[in-house]
């Protein structure tokens, strides 16, 4: 009885999938598919949009409007993705620094929904 196994390589900017058939005598690659414009960076961007929407709804501040905030969120998402490669759960904690004409706000929240810190300088 042959056994079919799928190998998925989800790289930074591309994805490859191979389906192999194992028998007692040999290994045969049945199908291979590559998508050179789909990778972890695209998944990170979609998560960034999702978490930004959550953050905006909870705190009334859009992280997508600040390049610094976007980069910090992308760093946190990448860390979360790396933790998830070995674990079933991974929290994401982000500290975003905003500057405005009125005051500087330091917002630290758990994007799972629970607020950790929200204070104004």
Describe the structure in your own words.
The chain has helices at residues 40-59, 67-84; strands spanning 3-10, 15-22, 27-35, 93-99, 104-110, 115-120. The strands form two sheets. The chain has a three-stranded antiparallel beta sheet, with no helix packed on it. The protein has a three-stranded antiparallel beta sheet with strand order 4-5-6. It is built from two helices and six strands, in the order E-E-E-H-H-E-E-E. Helices cover 31% and strands 37% of the residues. Helix 1 packs across helix 2 (67-84). It is elongated. The longest helix is centred in the middle third of the chain and has 20 residues, at 40-59.
Biggest sheet strand order reads 1-2-3
How many helices? The count is: 2
Helix content: 25-40%
Tell me, briefly, the overall form: elongated
Cα-atom Rg, whole angstroms?
20 Å
* H and E string: EEEHHEEE
Largest sheet: 3 strands, antiparallel
Low-confidence stretches: 99-106, 113-121
End-to-end separation in angstroms reads: 68 Å
Structural class: alpha+beta
Mean pLDDT: 79
**Number of E-state strands:** 6
Entry summary:
By secondary structure, this protein is of the alpha+beta class.
Helices and strands, with pairings:
Layout: E1 3-10, E2 15-22, E3 27-35, H1 40-59, H2 67-84, E4 93-99, E5 104-110, E6 115-120
Antiparallel strand pairs: 1-2, 2-3, 4-5, 5-6
Please supply descriptive tags for the structure shown above.
121 residues; alpha+beta; 3-stranded antiparallel β-sheet; 6 strands; elongated
């Amino acid at each position: 009885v042959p056994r079919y196994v799928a190998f998925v390589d989800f790289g930074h900017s591309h994805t490859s999938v191979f389906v192999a058939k194992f028998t007692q005598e040999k290994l045969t690659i049945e199908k291979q598919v590559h998508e050179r414009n789909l990778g972890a960076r695209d998944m990170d961007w979609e998560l960034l949009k999702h978490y930004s929407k959550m953050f905006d709804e909870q705190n009334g501040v859009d992280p997508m409007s600040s390049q610094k905030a976007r980069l910090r969120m992308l760093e946190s998402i990448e860390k979360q993705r790396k933790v998830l490669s070995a674990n079933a759960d991974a929290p994401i904690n982000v500290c975003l620094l905003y500057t405005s004409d009125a005051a500087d706000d330091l917002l630290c929240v758990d994007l799972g929904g629970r607020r950790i810190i929200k204070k104004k300088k």
